[in-house]
Write a structure and sequence with these properties.
Layout lengths: L5 E5 L10 H11 L4 E4 L3 H6 L4 E4 L11 H21 L2 E6 L10 H13 E6 L18 E3 L6 H4 L11 E5 L8 H9 L6 E5 L5 H12 L4 E4 L5 H10 L2 E3 L9 H8 L4 E4 L2 H10 L4 E4 L5 H13 L13 H18 L8
Helix pairs in contact: 1-12, 3-4, 6-7
Amino acid sequence: MTRTPLRVQQSFPDPRPTTNPYIVMLRDELAATDGVDVRTFSWASALFGRYDVFHAHWPEILVSGHSPLKTAARQVLTALLVARWRLTATAVVRTVHNLHRPEGLSRSQGALLGAIERATVHAIVLNESTVLDDSTVLPSGTPTTLVLHGHYRDWFSRFPQREAQRGRFSYFGLIRRYKGVDALLRAFRGLPGDYSLRVAGKARADALADELVELAASDDRVDLTLEFLSEAELVDVARQGEIVVLPYREMHNSGGALAALSVDRPVLVPANEVNSRLADEVGPGWVLQYDGEIDADILERAITTVRAEGRSPRPDLSARDWDRAGRGHLEAYEAAVASRSGRRRGR
């Protein structure tokens, strides 16, 4: 007897050209997974549609808008959505992309996120080092399923794969203060010799953008572009570097590191348990780590190591194939629904 697929309402809408490839690949893999009927987000479907599981990714998006009026409207809708989950005993699953809430939330946004967190019955974690406790977005004791963050190798293979430029360091992606791009620019200024630095990505704050422009202006070896990158541009920036530098001050799940490895570029990242596990997984010479604040000596040692290291032709990303992700998500959804057993499905 064929079992009825679980109806899963995602928190993301139909993908657009600028949508994170992780979301697009996840939607496509879930759509191809037996046992899952995946629905993308709209307020109408979330509030009035029939589904068994609500899958939240970055729930702060639900309570934020591009204007005060839109923010207020979204908060009202979110309150109604949480009430609907309570009335229908809907199983809520959350992927823990970040351990902590973003900064700058209002009191009402914080209260609504707290309500979503209390409604969550199961968590999907993206690496083995994720530990939930009283300080994280979900508390200790929340049941979890490990689903490793999928790679981007197939996704990026359609774009031109340029050769590396000798002596070039690269950084790509959205620029926030915690990502340490200012520290990277200061470190590079102290590195003498025939090196260059390519930094590309949109800065989320004007003050940060102004600071980066000022730092880059004093060194004509720096090529700085503070604009949103298309996927082809992202691949180009990553591939042109001998090494990709991601000097995040806080790093838990880095899609940037996986993106660089997916286009066969080694990465320099802060030393922590997550990155150590990634280094062991993908093979020697692909993930280089450093302690403390990044500086010129760290950059010089990294590029020297990259040139000397006998790396494999490509990093081993087999544990992050997307078919495994589909099966892992289904297991999480089934566990979440089982925790709500005895209640009617999809009211």
